[in-house]
Amino acid sequence: MIRKLVLSHPSGSSAEVYLNGAHVTSWIPAGDTERLFLSRKAMLENGKAIRGGIPVVFPQFADSGPLPKHGWLRTTEWEVDSARQSASSVTLFTEDTASTRQLWPHPYRAELTVDLDAESIEVSLTIINTGAEAFSFTSALHTYLAVADVRRAKLSGLFAAQYVDKTDNDLLKNEGSAEVRISCETDRVYIDAPPTLHLLDRYTGRSLHITATRFPDTVVWNPWAEKTKKLPDMDNDEYLRMICVEAALASQPLTLPPQQAWRGSQKLSALQADKPMLAATEKIRSD
């Protein structure tokens, strides 16, 4: 049976974390509703990647090398560090095995810490080189954020940033818009992105502050309609209900010396809606 932890804060906020993948699948701030997207068809099974929430990517981002796509931590059974566990915080860990060393011959320890408070959740990934030689890696927290309609969402903070457009032969482009909006398949790696972004769901009025620490890049992804149809663990219409805003170490690998540690994090902070729904006139304009 797949195992799950439930975190709760005295304010009433909550989060769910599966040991399979150290995968955060739910975050509900106090007095709010779900802020993470989880597909209705997500495979909640040991050894399977979960579609939605916050998958952990290591030691390879996407298919940018010879290893399995996004690495194997997202399908690995993690353990709880009981000395670092409370009602609203937990640290999980996993280490290299004979199987991982056949794919990637490096000893390591990975730790994922989830800290919950009333209006925010912070997810921190620590990679420790436990071996005698340096190794290089890429990584990400592949965060799926829930929106009512992605066509009415806007992501601010990336103006003038350079990005690799994965949907256009990896061309290097400059972001010319103050607000990134999604209206087609989107797969961008923003290089040396600003650390703080703002996501507004204009349909509901809900906002998120998104802050990355020591993840230099930001990935913005939505598969859109045609690609979603090819995903067995996602319903055909669900691309409209999500946007991935990922804290990433993707454009350049990081080299970690032996017996050293690297730690990166992403913090999501919720802002309540000013009003439950936009006026009908604004909805019509945004269609």
Tell me what you see in this structure.
With 287 residues, the protein is mainly β. It has helices spanning 98-103, 224-228, 280-286; strands spanning 4-8, 14-18, 23-28, 56-57, 79-85, 89-95, 108-116, 120-129, 135-141, 144-146, 153-156, 162-165, 171-174, 179-180, 186-190, 196-201, 206-213, 217-222, 242-256, 261-271. The strands form 3 sheets. A 9-stranded antiparallel β-sheet has the order 5-6-7-8-20-17-16-11-14, with no helix packed on it. A hairpin with a 3-residue loop joins strand 5 and strand 6 (89-95). The radius of gyration is 18 Å and the shape is globular.
Write the layout of secondary structure elements.
Layout: E1 4-8, E2 14-18, E3 23-28, E4 56-57, E5 79-85, E6 89-95, H1 98-103, E7 108-116, E8 120-129, E9 135-141, E10 144-146, E11 153-156, E12 162-165, E13 171-174, E14 179-180, E15 186-190, E16 196-201, E17 206-213, E18 217-222, H2 224-228, E19 242-256, E20 261-271, H3 280-286
Antiparallel strand pairs: 1-2, 2-3, 4-9, 5-6, 6-7, 7-8, 8-20, 9-19, 10-19, 11-14, 11-16, 12-13, 12-15, 15-18, 16-17, 17-20, 18-19
